[in-house]
Amino acid sequence: MFDVTWVFIRLGGFFFFGGLMLDIEIAILIMGLVVLHMNFGLKTILNDYIHINKIKIFLVFLIRLSSIEIGRYILEILL
């Protein structure tokens, strides 16, 4: 059967890499938004399921550290 989701995923990747060749600023903006989305999602999960403050503070620190590292790796790949 024809699956339109499969087509959209392939087209998204094709347009992303095509846009990467044309304009690097848009790709950096998209990657920044992906890291921000990941950061907000992980903090929401953390606040919903972790109730001990010491563990929560430590995990927030790890989320911030991982966001910085992922952002650095993305910039390293793009530049």
Automatic annotation (TrEMBL):
InterPro entries: SQR/QFR_C/D
Entry keywords, A to Z: Membrane, Mitochondrion, Transmembrane, Transmembrane helix
Transmembrane segments: 12-36
Domain of life: Eukaryota
GO cellular component, one term: membrane
Protein's name in the database: SdhD
Organism: Agarophyton chilense (Red seaweed)
Lineage of source species: Eukaryota, Rhodophyta, Florideophyceae, Rhodymeniophycidae, Gracilariales
